[in-house]
Design a protein that fits this description.
The structure is a single chain. With 460 residues, this protein is α/β, with parallel strands linked by helices. 43% of the residues lie in helices and 17% in strands.
């Protein structure tokens, strides 16, 4: 994909297309032939001027027959003042399916090539419009599932991650230059200030670790938290889901075993996207359908990041509860005593559960939900999933490269401690510089670029 970028004119639908929904659909072109294709297909009545950053009104027509395909707007963005730094044209058509698909087909018939996933953003990167952290932030912004995730992605798009990474790389290059100068011109320069180099390496590692500390937060904001509500039948799991999500997603009755499958809801708590799974009550079932539901409940609990182990305060702790806990004890667990209004005092838990966080609720009356959300956030913080004092968050690829840089810098420190020759210092310094360059894209391979941009949508 990389080798062909910037040579051909590419085209793609740049908006989500849903039948009978969406008022506008956009077809985007980028490349040297974008404007000529637009002039072939688009008729702008009157004396409208074809110039950059101007919107034209008119009709998309078949070149041969002159048949009108759609009434549309045309946006011109000429190089270099465009997203890709190439000539970019956008047809703003009526939404739905047929109009945009017909316009896209006409563009392809006029010589454009269907864009590959992420190819518009790839061209923006290759043409110097964006660095690699900004390009990845665009994908994060498009896929953000919470306001905090969107803000973090926006910070990356504004260069707030690239700036400290470039500073780290610049500091490493300065150290390398000092060391190499002593190797090449040892007799002409004063001795190397080893103490200064040590201090600089210590500061580099401190900053690297500070940025690395944002990796867990980044993963949490991107993928969210999977939470399973688990417990015996009729303890109020479905009522808890409905109260929490403020919907009637789950059926609530007095009959045990009403929920036969996993019911899913999506929430945002403290900026963290949460996928909540209301599971069937876990018990030894004879009904085949219920058996399947119980088995799915066990699977959901096993896959969850956090388990809300829901208990009936009126019934107290039972042998069935003990059996269920044994199945989820390897997960992160919050105990939820539901039906708090039916008892004077909360029952005691077994001694081996006494350290678990505990929340009381009256789900049927929507009481205790705020306490539950705070307990979840506390559990997240206890799991070291909070970021360092930065408004950015790195992804897995960036974390891997930064970890390699950290190891290389630590090896430089070891090399100094062992009093090895300066040539050995430079080996690990260059490794650190290369790893830092991979984050921003200053040093990157085609295979890595293909891997990154293949995850983008086609029109981006």
């Amino acid at each position: 994909m990389v080798s062909g970028s910037g040579q051909e004119t590419i085209a793609a639908i740049a908006t989500a297309i849903v039948p009978q929904q969406g008022s506008v659909g956009i077809v985007r072109l980028s490349g040297a032939e974008a404007v000529s294709i637009a002039k072939t297909l688009f008729h702008a009545p009157g004396s409208q001027v074809w110039e950059s950053h101007r919107i034209l009104y008119g009709f998309v027509r078949q070149p041969g027959s002159g048949q009108t395909v759609d009434e549309a707007l045309l946006l011109l963005l000429l190089a270099p003042r465009s997203y890709t730094r190439e000539d970019v044209v956008e047809f703003h058509c009526h939404g739905g399916i047929m109009a945009v698909q017909q316009v896209l087909q006409l563009c392809l018939e006029q010589g454009a090539r269907l864009a590959q996933p992420g190819e518009f953003t790839l061209r923006a990167f290759l043409n110097g419009r964006l660095d690699l952290t900004q390009a990845e932030s665009i994908a994060d912004l498009v896929g953000a599932e919470s306001p905090q995730a969107a803000q973090t992605a926006l910070a990356g798009l504004q260069g707030k991650l690239a700036q400290p990474i470039r500073q780290l790389r610049s500091m490493s290059l300065e150290i390398l230059a000092e060391v190499e100068a002593r190797i090449d011109f040892e007799d002409d320069l004063p001795p190397l200030d080893e103490g200064l180099i040590r201090r600089q390496l210590t500061e580099l590692l401190r900053q690297v670790e500070q940025i690395l500390a944002t990796a867990d937060r980044g993963e949490l904001l991107r993928t969210g938290l999977k939470v399973a509500i688990v417990g015996r039948p009729n303890v109020g799991k479905s009522s808890l889901l409905n109260a929490w999500s403020r919907t009637d997603r789950a059926i609530v009755t007095d009959l045990p075993g009403t929920t036969r499958d996993v019911v899913e809801s999506h929430l945002v708590v403290g900026g963290i996207p949460i996928q909540v799974l209301d599971t069937a009550g876990i018990r030894e079932a004879t009904d085949r359908v219920e058996q399947i539901g119980v088995e799915r409940s066990r699977h959901a609990a096993a896959q969850a990041d956090l388990v809300l182990f829901t208990l009936d305060a009126q019934a107290g702790w039972t042998p069935e509860d003990q059996a269920i806990y044994q199945q989820v004890s390897h997960r992160s667990v919050i105990v939820v005593w539901n039906k708090r209004d039916l008892v004077v005092e909360i029952p005691c838990l077994p001694s081996d559960l006494s350290d678990l966080p505990l929340v009381t609720t009256v789900a049927a009356q929507q009481q205790g939900i705020e306490d539950l959300e705070q307990a979840i956030l506390d559990r997240v913080e206890a799991g070291n999933l909070q970021a360092a004092n930065l408004d950015v968050a790195i992804n897995q690829r960036q974390a891997a490269a930064l970890t390699r840089a950290k190891i290389a810098l630590q090896q430089v420190q070891e090399t100094i401690e062992q009093q090895l020759p300066l040539d050995f210092w430079t080996i690990d310094l260059r490794s650190a510089i290369q790893a830092l360059g991979e984050i921003t894209g200053e040093e990157i391979t085609e295979s890595v670029l293909d891997q990154i941009f293949s995850r983008f949508c086609i029109g981006k």
